[in-house]
């Protein structure tokens, strides 16, 4: 099986590539990634000399680049996206470009080269739900430019299945966590800040709820959908680990034996969704279920960030530093130095 993985130098994509190469001896993977601020070749250092793995630096929005690369591939798995809600609020343009137009370019490449297509989407396309859980048939009501772009991308993907009869599958996963996640996202930001005795900027009252899934469980679910899912269908993916941000923050601090005084309640994110929750019966009918216990996986994730300090220190001291300073410190009036 020959996979074209886009965005494979990011968090989930890099975990997916390592997982696929480890699981299937006959797999070969092309990783096409633009290496934006979120893409990091260090995430796949351990497989870069594997003869089954090829890295190509490039933009999914370029049909001249994408179409020849897709030739001969069995499936395109599209992880490439601008993925951070906060950045979509300060600058939506690149989200619409990559997450919508880029998806269209990849779908055209799949159509011309007879490739299968998996669109990695998000539970955020549904918007917030105060009680119960969203089904795959629920109305889409995205709140941020990020989730709206993801909704746009997956609707185009679905239309290619309906119109051209292409083998398209769509996954809508809940919040992932695990190794190699960029330290702008809640869990790695708070782990690394706490290690450095820096403030943890918790938005609003910290009572927003997310359903956390360990990244490898999501990778396995994507494979289950790809291998056993029904063409043209959408599959929610989640592990049922619903916690408030305050609860998750408490668990991180307690694992690191750091004081609660590091928590700083700051101005809320505009349009902040209160709760995400998806019903996952459909993907479970394929025989998939999460195999990682949340608390144990969080503990291991904390240990990974402790043991891989050079990985995140490089990111936090590079281009990210300016964003980090203006976003977290100047914006919220926090002191940058250790508290
Ligand atoms: P990430 O930001 O860590 O990685 C995105 C990758 O895409 C980076 O390597 C980046 O360089 C690459 N990229 C961005 N624009 C590109 C372009 N124009 N051309 C080629 N490559 C480009 O994101 P992630 O957290 O790994 O998420 C991967 C996918 O999963 C995204 O589509 C995201 O919407 C979706 N998703 C993520 C989560 C989550 O919790 N992280 C949950 C549900 C769905
Ligand atoms: P995030 O990791 O950005 O994922 P998403 O917005 O896609 O769910 O944020 C997870 C939750 O944590 C979300 O409710 C926003 C909140 N959050 C904070 O409170 N402080 C922060 O510094 C960040 C990055 C997120």
Set down the secondary structure blueprint.
Elements: E1 2-6, H1 11-23, E2 28-33, E3 53-57, H2 63-70, E4 75-78, H3 85-90, H4 93-113, E5 116-122, H5 145-164, E6 168-173, E7 175-177, H6 186-195, E8 200-203, E9 209-214, H7 215-228, E10 234-237, E11 242-244, H8 245-256, E12 263-266, H9 281-284, H10 294-307, H11 309-317, H12 320-330
Parallel strand pairs: 1-2, 1-4, 2-3, 4-5, 5-6, 6-10, 7-9, 8-12
Antiparallel strand pairs: 9-11
The structure holds nicotinamide-adenine-dinucleotide and thymidine-5'-diphosphate (TYD).
The site of thymidine-5'-diphosphate has 12 residues, from helix 6 and strand 8.
Number of domain modules? 2
Order of helices and strands: EHEEHEHHEHEEHEEHEEHEHHHH
Alpha-beta classification: alpha/beta
Specify the CATH class of the largest domain.
Alpha Beta
CATH names the topology of the largest domain as: Rossmann fold
Number of helices: 12
Low-confidence parts: none
Beta-strand residue fraction:
15-25%
Each distinct ligand: nicotinamide-adenine-dinucleotide, thymidine-5'-diphosphate
Strand order of the largest sheet: 3-2-1-4-5-6-10
Average pLDDT across residues? 96
Rounded to an integer, what's the Rg over CA atoms?
A: 19 Å
| Total number of beta strands | 12
User: What is the CATH homologous superfamily assignment of the largest domain?
Assistant: NAD(P)-binding Rossmann-like Domain
């Amino acid at each position: 099986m020959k996979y074209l993985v886009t965005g494979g130098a990011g968090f989930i994509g890099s975990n997916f590539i390592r997982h696929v190469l480890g699981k299937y001896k006959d797999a070969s993977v092309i990783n096409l990634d633009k290496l934006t601020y979120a893409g990091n070749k260090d995430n796949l250092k351990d497989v870069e000399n594997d003869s089954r793995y090829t890295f190509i630096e490039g933009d999914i929005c370029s049909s001249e680049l994408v179409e020849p690369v897709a030739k001969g591939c069995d499936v395109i798995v599209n992880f490439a996206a601008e993925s951070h809600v906060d950045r979509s609020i300060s600058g939506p343009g690149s989200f619409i470009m990559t997450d919508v137009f880029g998806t269209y370019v990849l779908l055209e490449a799949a159509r011309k080269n007879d490739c299968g297509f998996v669109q990695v989407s998000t539970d955020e396309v549904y918007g917030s739900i105060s009680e119960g859980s969203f089904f795959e048939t629920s109305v889409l009501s995205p709140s941020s430019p990020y989730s709206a772009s993801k909704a746009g991308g997956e609707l185009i993907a679905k239309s290619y299945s309906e119109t051209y009869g292409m083998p398209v599958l769509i996954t809508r996963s809940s919040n992932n966590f695990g190794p190699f996640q960029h330290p702008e996202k809640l869990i790695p930001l708070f782990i690394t800040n706490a290690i450095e005795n820096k403030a943890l900027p918790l938005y609003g009252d910290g009572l927003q709820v997310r359903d956390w899934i360990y990244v490898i469980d999501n990778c396995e679910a994507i494979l289950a959908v790809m291998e056993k899912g029904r063409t043209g269908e959408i599959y929610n993916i989640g592990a049922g680990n619903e916690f408030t941000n305050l609860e998750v923050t408490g668990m991180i601090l307690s694992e690191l034996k750091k004081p609660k005084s590091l928590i700083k309640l700051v101005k809320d994110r505009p349009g902040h969704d209160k709760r995400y929750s998806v019903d996952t019966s459909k993907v479970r009918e394929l025989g998939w279920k999460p195999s990682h216990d949340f608390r144990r996986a969080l503990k291991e994730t904390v240990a990974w960030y402790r043991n891989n300090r050079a990985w995140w220190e490089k990111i936090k001291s590079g281009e990210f530093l300016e964003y980090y300073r203006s976003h977290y410190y100047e914006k919220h009036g926090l002191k940058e130095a250790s508290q």
